Inverse folding.
């Protein structure tokens, strides 16, 4: 939520959302677009389904709108960006639980901060006027320690990830001539960041366990 008191997606012309498996609202894969522009929304609906003017469903229920020898038209070079009906139904149920999920994620974040206080770690600072939904929890560890710390945590049954590798360091962008000379902060963060477990199903006991193992990893 922004300092305007509005949720993301409620005030801009277009906003995209991901429903990937590690997101606050997840259906496994897929996403959605929110827009307050009716014309733009109609264009997006056409582009998501091969540029066709009618979906498979509407061809059956609205047959009288077209002749039987041409049930639909293709008016643009579209794509197959449709999410399944099953995933959409799951998403509607998840949406009704989203606020509760976000409250729990905030509790998990605060507990982590309390338990890891005083360690040589850096958390992302969250402005007081913003409400963070804590999609992932990236933490900066001391330089040169990430590899052994992730390996240690993995042996203890704790999965971690990296969010994110600086984009300009990926092979595709390297081939385009990008380098890190003008982005020293991104390079530094990219070398030190570790994403530790964060989701609404974590219990306080889980957070205590992960935190204790992080403390131990820093002593190895």
């Amino acid at each position: 939520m922004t300092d305007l008191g509005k949720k993301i997606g409620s005030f801009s012309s277009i906003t995209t959302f991901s429903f990937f498996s590690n997101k606050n609202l997840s259906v496994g894969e897929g996403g959605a677009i929110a827009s307050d522009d009716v014309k733009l929304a109609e264009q997006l609906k056409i582009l998501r389904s091969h540029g066709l003017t009618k979906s498979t469903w509407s061809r059956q229920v609205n047959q009288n709108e077209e002749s039987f020898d041409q049930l639909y038209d293709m008016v643009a070079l579209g794509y197959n960006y449709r999410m399944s009906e099953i995933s959409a139904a799951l998403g509607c149920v998840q949406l009704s639980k989203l606020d509760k999920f976000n409250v729990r994620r905030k509790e998990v974040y605060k507990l982590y901060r309390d338990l890891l206080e005083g360690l040589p770690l850096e958390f992302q600072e969250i402005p007081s006027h913003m409400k963070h939904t804590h999609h992932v929890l990236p933490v900066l560890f001391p330089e040169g320690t990430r590899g052994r710390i992730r390996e240690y945590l993995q042996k203890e049954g704790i999965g971690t990830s990296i969010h994110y590798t600086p984009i300009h360091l990926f092979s595709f962008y390297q081939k385009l001539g990008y380098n890190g000379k003008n982005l020293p902060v991104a390079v530094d963060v990219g070398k030190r960041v570790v994403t530790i477990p964060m989701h609404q199903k974590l219990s306080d006991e889980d957070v205590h366990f992960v935190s204790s193992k992080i403390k131990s990893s820093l002593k190895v």
